[in-house]
Amino acid sequence: MINENRWLPLISALLTCHVALADGIVSEINKAPVTPDGNVAGAATDIVIDLDRSLDPAVEGRSLLAGCAIRLTLPNAFVNTGLPVQDIFSSPTCAPGNFGCSSAILLQGWPQHPLLPVIPPPGPATQYALTLEGTHTLVFTALVDVVPGNAAPGPGLKQAHLLLFGFRNPEKPGFYPINVDAQTGPECASETGVGTIHILPEIRPSVQVTSVFNPGAPNTIYQHAAPGGDAPLALDLLLWARDGGPLDGVTINMVNNDHALLMQGERAVGHMRIDAPAGASGHGIIDLGPSTVINTPVTGVPTARLTAQFTAGSASGRYTATISLNGGNSINMFVDVE
User: Fold this and answer.
1) In 3-state terms, what secondary structure has residue 4?
2) Domains in the chain, start-ordered, CATH in brackets?
């Protein structure tokens, strides 16, 4: 006799969109932080694949040795419109501000801190090259050993950003698998996995982190501070509204040490919540002025920038700030206080 009840938790999770499907080398796949609609049905594909290493910069990433490759295969429901697949910075028409191409780039775990294909840009690839196999498989091939600390300082390979302006997301919303075959094991041994991207029916409010406003694009998501002191780097947030336009004029209103409202005029558009060590007091987040309209790094689409400063509390330990928009996503930032 079939026990129908055993299917109820899965069905319920699918209906409420709480399933994050990933296995093997893949941790998760999300919309890129430089677009409001990279995971929306029919829009240009702009997503980030996280590998199964912590994004904490204290944790070492993977290595891709010379001659080894990473293959990322999209389902056929993604439409390849025929733009050339090129290394970013390889030509004037495949660079930030002028993407007449599909491209992809390896990341070290936070926005705008990539492992570049050419150092310094622009020019032909010297570190790794991007090619297309068939119509839907992107291939990164290492030209030298791409390892932690070479040639850019950082923990090494943890993510891949797919800037596929020549692809369109499936017209039908839903969950779509992306297969990863990475020769990142010993002697180019394959490590495989699959992650699922949730293609949305429409744009949702979005909050993301950008790192470009600090020299060298350091990691503002993981920071350290002394008890009662400020985190050394301000946190720059990108805010999009439900229509995909900039969510400007937003300020932070602290309700208490652990909770703040994101306010646009008299309307609450989101929240900040701080999970602090036991007994902590005096912690909080303040804005350095209302959010203002800017062009998004890399893609250049309009967004709103909100700059915030985190102040540590009296107790040592990890403080986790969760920032969310109503009807949209949430992100975390971490400050270790010692």
Assistant:
1) helix
2) 21-199 (2.60.40), 206-337 (2.60.40)
Question: Token match 């309700």: residue?
Answer: 255
Question: How far separated are the first and last CA of the chain, in Å rounded?
Answer: 58
H/E stretch holding 294 reads strand 292-295
Closest among 97, 154, 166, 171 to 130, alpha carbons compared = 166
pLDDT digits over 117-159, tens only? 999 999 999 999 999 999 999 999 999 999 998 877 899 999 9
Helical residues (DSSP H) of the chain, grouped into ranges: 8-15
Rounded CA-CA distance 95/84 in Å is 13
Residue 22's pLDDT is 75
pLDDT in tens, 28-58: 999 999 999 999 999 999 999 999 999 999 9
Show Cβ contacts of residue 165 under 8 Å, excluding neighbours closer than 6 positions.
44, 46, 83, 99, 100, 101, 102, 103
- Are 57 and 322 in contact by the 8 Å Cβ rule? The answer is no
Q: Which residues pair with 114 in a beta bridge?
A: 107
For the record, the structure tokens of 145 come out as 């050993």
Mean pLDDT of 236-254: 98
Residues sharing a CB contact under 8 Å with residue 198, sequence separation 6 or more, in sequence order: 17, 39, 174, 175
> Looking at residue 151, what is its pLDDT?
74
SS3 25: coil
Q: Which residues pair with 85 in a beta bridge?
A: 102
Concatenated DSSP letters for 297-315? TTT--EEEEEEEEEE--SS
HSE-CB at 145 with a 13 A cutoff on CA atoms is 7
Q: Give the Å distances, CA to CA, from 132 to 83, 129, 212.
A: 11, 10, 29
Query: Which of 231, 228, 225 shows the shortest CA–CA distance to 337?
Result: 225
